[in-house]
Amino acid sequence: MMIGLILTPLFYIQINKKLYEIKVKHYLMVEKGYQEEEIKSVTGVWGVKLPPFYAVVVFEAEPFVECIYFAHNDVQQFEYRISAEGKQLGITEADVKHIDSEK
What is the pTM of this model? Predict the structure, then answer.
């Protein structure tokens, strides 16, 4: 019984992370028209701040930029981050291409 109490929250977290990945990838491909090969990765994340779940997207054309999407009700891009390596390469905000205009 104790194992069930420990495993239940872990399953909840893993399932929600996967659901966010699926929801955001669907949004990008169906609503935004991206092709699968344009998307390098979509990773569901459980964070310590609110909201607890979100997805990080990296596009093939911008491997040094992480786009953050919330998918609680509707999917929307919240922000983006340029990696330290990207900053060292001289990538600036003006260079970022994958910004949702509906943001």
Answer: 0.86
Residue 93 CB-density burial (10 A; 0-12 exposed, 13-18 middle, 19+ buried): exposed
Which residues pair with residue 98 across a beta bridge?
none
The two structure tokens encoding residue 28: 């990008």
In the chain, % of residues over pLDDT 90: 61
What one-character-per-residue DSSP string does 7-31 give? HHHHHHHHHHHHHHHHHHHHIIIII
How far is it, in rounded angstroms, from Cα 76 to Cα 46? 17
Question: Is the separation of the CB atoms in 80 and 91 below 8 Å?
Answer: no
